[in-house]
Amino acid sequence: MARIIQLPVSVITKIAAGEVIERPASVIKELLENSVDALATRIEVDLEQGGTELIRVVDDGHGIEPADLSLAFASHATSKLRDADDLFRIGTMGFRGEALASIGGVARVTLQSRAAGRDDGAEITCAGGELGPLRPWNGASGTRLEARHLFFNTPVRKKFLKTHSTELGHVTDMVQRLALAHPHVHFVLRHNGRGVLEVPESAGLLDRITLFFGSEVRDKLYPIEADQGQVHLAGWIADPSCDRGNAKLQYLYLNGRWIRDRSLLHALQEAYRGLLMTGRYAVGFLFITMPADQVDVNVHPTKTEVRFRDSQALYHLVRAAVKHKLSDLNLVPRLQLPPEGVPGTPSPDADMFASRADDIQAPWDVVMPSGPTRAPMPPPKPQRAIQIHDSYLVVETPTGMLVIDQHALHERILFEQLRRRIRDGQLEVQRLLIPEPVDLPGDQAACVLEAGEELRGLGLEVEDFGGGTVLLSSYPALLSRVSPLDIFKSVVDGLMNRERLPSKEQMLHHLLATMACKAAVKAGDPLTGEEITYLMELRDMAEDSHHCPHGRPTSLQFSKTELEKQFRRI
Ligand code: ADP
Ligand code: MG
User: Fold this and answer.
1) Which of 148, 180, 200 delimits the end of a domain?
2) Which residues surround ligand 2, an ion (CB under 5 A)?
3) pLDDT tens digit string along 405-419?
4) Looking at residue 246, which CATH number applies to its domain?
5) Within-domain flag for 462
6) Which of 200, 231, 248 is the last residue of a domain?
7) 567 assigned to some structural domain
8) How far is residue 166's CA from residue 446's CA, in Å, rounded to a whole number?
């Protein structure tokens, strides 16, 4: 039988690190929290290769005394706690004294610091838990920490890391969470030397929300505020029309700390009941403050989960405050009106792309097969299709009748046209006279630039303009029915979901389907007779006219026999 032994410190550290440090973003979280605790006003983060190669955090906080540097890497060594009672009056982000020990246990770390008021600083290294000698360092006042080769000594952990762009995405989320909670701190995030986020100190909470999530979110926010005893709730909730497909834009903070709390997010979501379709999520930024002794933040190694003394009361407070606001606003369900003007013409904002006007032919040049690989189209045969509910085409067939979903069909047609032309190397690309600048959240910009080659293959040429802005200079001519910007944005969304699509083939299919969906006529678009005829012509030429690229049917058959049976003719 195996004997019981006391584990060596090196193993203990690795076990502890497993709880706290899961990926580069967890390192960033701990380091940023330390900088915030040190009252930094400016924090700069540099990453290389998604943080797997290098993570560097530089702050202008109060620094660490040279004599304390080596202790910083000892486990359960902290300047933020003195006795057990302090655990119930935590006012700092950190208090467990475990983070640096954990990071030093699984990376090669250099910690350099000059304490405020001193003219000399010191540095020390810690690689896989091994401390190096203390040396003098004369950098700027504040703290500078570099962690290289994360998980170099725990290869199994390293294997769990995802692509660099995914890891960068997690880091960006993390920096955004911190930056929303600390509006007076200037945050900078760079990846491989390229700017991802720049959040100046002057940017308050709303500016930060705009910076991270765009003005579409910012313009739809309503303030909320409520008090109950010593508990204070404040923040912003968004109009139901700003709903999302996931809960990512539900931000919850407790005493300045971003937390995960299923119950409180449920309260938020509940308050929107009846205003959102199932599967849609509200957007909200909720900040709760309460005396430190009413909550236990020491229940989770990364402190992202907390235990409230009275969670019921809190649930009701959140739900009531949000509900109250929404009912005050007297929101009536809003209908999406079809765009004004002639159906099938490009949206008004497309006018700025002057060059496109020339290649618009009736009714949509986009559905006309063209290019050297195809024979000219025969003139459309008269067909007896009619449009109903501005959404479906009903057409007589030799054996009965068909009801066609106009959007699904057009989507299918565009999808096949794009796929065929890309396969044949015949994709016509329309260049924009003036490249269009597109502001993206930093992680998305990085992801787009990384996928530059793939996007070029789809007819979308992008280049870096710096600071999260990319320049879009071309789009597939086939899709000129809608604005290139809309096409591009849908593709960016598609790119961000790439993790679910393991193979390149699947990714391409997904992006093509996304573009086709965006550019196709929508349910609710009235069509002219000519447009209907063109759609029907192209239906006959499609390889699979029965399913849209997402696999939904494009049409339903009703047989003549079925009709006759129903009318009791036979
Ligand atoms: P904790 O934050 O829980 O105290 P850490 O392991 O994260 O534990 O850090 C250990 C100690 O090192 C902190 O208590 C703090 O005194 C010091 N420290 C770490 N990072 C910084 C920093 N950026 N500026 C000043 N002091 C720091
Ligand atoms: Mg800490």
Assistant:
1) 200
2) 34, 94, 99
3) 999 999 999 999 899
4) 3.30.230.10
5) yes
6) 200
7) no
8) 10
| 212 and 196, same domain (yes or no) | no
**Which atom in ligand 1 lies closest to the alpha carbon of residue 77?**
10
Residue with tokens 């003007």: 341
Q: Ligand 1 within 6 A of 26 CB? A: no
The token pair that represents 68 in the structure block: 């304390």
Does 564 map to a domain?
no
- pTM of the entire predicted model: 0.65
Ligand 2 centroid to 8 CA: how many Å?
23
Inter-helix orientation angle 484-496/442-450, to 10°: 90
Q: Let me know: does 307 contact 299? Beta carbons within 8 Å.
A: yes
What is the rounded CA–CA span in Å between residue 314 and residue 490? 38
Closest CA to 439 of 216, 163, 206: 216
Residues 391 and 279 in one domain: no
Same domain, residue pair 23 and 97: yes
Q: Which domain holds residue 301?
A: 207-327
Going from the C-alpha of 88 to that of each of 37, 94, 304, 438, the distances in angstroms are 17, 13, 16, 47
Non-local CB neighbours of 144 within 8 Å, separated by 6+ positions: 56, 57, 58, 59, 111, 112, 113
The pLDDT of residue 502: 59
Atom in ligand 1 nearest the alpha carbon of residue 111: 20
Atom 25, ligand 1: which residue's CA is nearest? 63
Rounded to an integer, the average pLDDT of 3-23 is 82
- Ligand 1 atom closest to the CA of 78, numbered from 1: 14
Backbone dihedral angles phi then psi of residue 124, each to the nearest 5 degrees: -150, 150
